[in-house]
Amino acid sequence: MAVLAAAQLLDELMGRHRNTNPNEKIKKPNWEDSEYCKYYLVKFCPHDLFVNTRADLGVCPKVHDDEVKELFEKAESSYKKAQYVEEFLRFCRHMINDVERKIQKGKQRLELMNSKPEGPPMTQAQTEKNQEQVQLLSEKVKSLVQEAEEAGTRGDVEQAQGLMKLCDRLKEEKDQLLKQQENSHWSMTVELAAAQEKQMEVCPVCGAFLIVGDAQQRIDDHLSGKQHVGYFKLRQAYEEMNEAREKELQEKERRRREDRDKDRSSRGGGLGSDRRDRERMERDRERDGDKDRKDRDRSDRERERERDKDRHRSSRDDRSSRHEDRDRDRDRERDRDRKHRKDRRSSRDRSRRRSRDRH
């Protein structure tokens, strides 16, 4: 990334063709080349908005050239130019959706922090009375357990079971009193913390946490910060380009209706003109449908070409792996044959030596 940033800086200082030879023919810039940043040609590059912030996208790997941007703006409307605009809007919409989710999570977090426990806190007298009741219940439970043990040793099972049930009920009552005392203590702690903390809010543009009623200098610093300004610029550009695209579509539809009305008035109206208008509308619809189909077919062909490349690459890798496996199997088979022949020769030699020894 550092090398790329240095190269971009040198291009700005010395020109894009700083490394070309004097006799070498310089290629004219073309905005359709893949080396240029599409987002910068359309409006601006989002990578330049959040430098050294938490939302930093890093250095853009593409080239930012003002001359090429002018060529893009002067170029006539085409499918590729519209595709560049659509990609820019899609990227802006993705980033805006991310920050909207961040804002929603921040609001939920503040609601959870500001939520209070149920029930008011207990007074000092209520706390002392609660402690006395807990102590009495503990003594009763202890005495009941002793009586149940004595009844069990005497063999009176029914009395022992009844005493244990009564003991369980007293234990539940004691647990409820202890829980009430703990909730009261938690409520007092939360109220004290809420009184000491400052009230917060979430910025509706960038999702940062702000202090309600903070000093004006800190508010101005936040509003002029890179992250806030970047998201504001992103939202503004997205809304303006969407509105412009909708107005352009409405203007095309209005001109089409005016052309139909003029043609109808010039031909005098009647059933024949209505039929011709319907036929013209159908032809326009078919032409628009053919254009959309061509665009879809073009994108489908590009995707199919990419898939073919991936399949060719994977099949080539598979063939190479199969060749390697086959070579390894052939080597292992050759080694086995060589060992088998060697074993046979050694067995023949042993049999010959034994026969010579007998003779």
Describe the structure.
Helix 4 packs across helix 8. Helix content is 76%, strand content 2%. The longest helix has 89 residues. The model has no long low-confidence stretch (mean pLDDT 77). It has a domain of 75 residues. The chain has nine helices and two strands; from the N terminus they run H-H-H-H-H-H-E-E-H-H-H. Strand 1 and strand 2 form a beta hairpin. The chain starts with a helix and ends with a helix.
Features:
flat, 359 residues, 9 helices
What is the strand and helix layout of this fold?
Layout: H1 2-14, H2 38-42, H3 66-74, H4 79-114, H5 124-154, H6 157-196, E1 200-202, E2 209-211, H7 216-223, H8 226-266, H9 270-358
Helix pairs in contact: 4-8, 5-6
Give the % helix: over 70%
- Largest beta sheet: strand ordering: 1-2
The radius of gyration computed from the alpha-carbon positions, rounded to a whole number of angstroms, is 42 Å
Largest sheet entry: 2 strands, antiparallel
The residue-averaged pLDDT reads 77
Q: Estimate the strand proportion.
A: under 5%
* Class computed from helices, strands and strand pairing: mainly alpha
What does this entry show, briefly?
The chain has 359 residues and is mainly alpha-helical. Helix content is 76%, strand content 2%.
